[in-house]
Amino acid sequence: xxxxxxxxxxxxxxxxxxxxxxxxxxxxxxxxxxxxxxxxxxxxxxxxxxxxxxxxxxxxxxxxxxxxxxxxxxxxxxxxxxxxxxxxxxxxxxxxxxxxxxxxxxxxxxxxxxxxxxxxxxxxxxxxxxxxxxxxxxxxxxxxxxxxxxxxxxxxxxxxxxxxxxxxxxxxxxxxxxxxxxxxxxxxxxxxxxxxxxxxxxxxxxxxxxxxxxxxxxxxxxxxxxxxx
Length: 229
Fold this sequence. Notes:
Layout: H1 3-18, H2 26-69, H3 85-99, H4 105-108, E1 109-118, E2 124-132, E3 147-148, E4 166-175, E5 189-197
Antiparallel strand pairs: 1-2, 1-4, 2-3, 4-5
Helix pairs in contact: 2-3
């Protein structure tokens, strides 16, 4: 056995004798053990934060749509304000712009706009309804012509229209699009409602067409599409 081989063996022996006291890899080992838990918690936090942000955005959209719908219509000092199908279509378009392309409101959800009014018998009823979105969902409170007692909305928090007036009631259902996994948030469907009283004197007889020879499309509730055209 050569002297070079002996020296190599002695170095190996010294390294082996020092292993029991070595601590250089402890931190690396601990990090490798806990990293999956930290990573999982971080991803879960990101998903929940995005879900909360989306829920808030859907709620704000419902408020915006109801508020805008309570204001729409032409302005005239000689007669009550008329609303047109084009006004409703612009209302839906504005909500899509506000929601942004990332949300894609009408491909992943549905917006239902109802006009709650008082009929000749002093009963609360849904006069008309307009809807947009591909999600197969209908109003939780009724369809046009339905009489509602005592009013429209979640039980105990119903809203009512005054005689000669109207309340715009908006429902939104939206299927949340996860960043990471749906399993982290459970049920992906976000539901919210909002309502505003019509502020000005409105012609409640019907929704008009601005040009009867070239009528605007109607966002009927028996269609499940992402556009009004």
